[in-house]
Specification:
The protein is mainly α. It has helices spanning 10-24, 30-41, 45-57, 76-113, 119-123, and strands at residues 28-29, 62-66, 69-73. Helix 2 packs across helix 3 (45-57). The longest helix has 38 residues, at 76-113. The chain is elongated, with a radius of gyration of 27 Å. The protein starts with 9 loop residues before the first helix and ends with a helix. The model has no long low-confidence stretch (mean pLDDT 85).
Length: 124
């Protein structure tokens, strides 16, 4: 490797691998990915399996074993659906937190009504 040429980080390899899936919108065998990735995205053949495995573990790539072959795929629509679902869940959680905060503020005001600051309280 030339001194001025730097290898790709794992995160860069993951992004480039996802680009392969999103651009082609196709289903691949690991053997096919090991041929395509070095040519099109500069991911070394030796690291393709590790990158694909990490993406499968994170749920970004789907995999299925059919017979003796293991197929990998990822479509852009799945990623957008996952982001929509995550956004909806976050908004729902936020709404619950706001409701809980309002309930707690009401409890605080109710609890403070019987505890007005008097001279007796200040002396203690």
């Amino acid at each position: 490797m030339a001194p001025n040429k730097k290898g790709l980080s794992l995160e860069e390899k993951r992004k480039k691998m996802m680009e392969i899936f999103y651009e082609t919108k196709d289903v691949f065998l690991l053997k096919d990915l090991e041929k395509i990735a070095p040519k099109s995205k500069g991911i070394t053949m030796m690291s393709v399996k590790d990158v694909v495995t990490s993406l499968v573990d994170d749920g970004l790539i789907d995999t299925e074993k059919i017979g003796t072959s293991v197929y990998f795929w990822a479509f852009p629509s799945k990623a957008s659906q996952a982001r929509k679902k995550k956004l909806e869940m976050s908004e729902e959680k936020c709404l619950k937190m706001v409701t809980r905060m309002n309930d707690l503020e009401k409890e605080v005001t109710v609890a403070e009504k019987g505890r007005e600051d008097t001279k007796e309280m200040q002396e203690l």
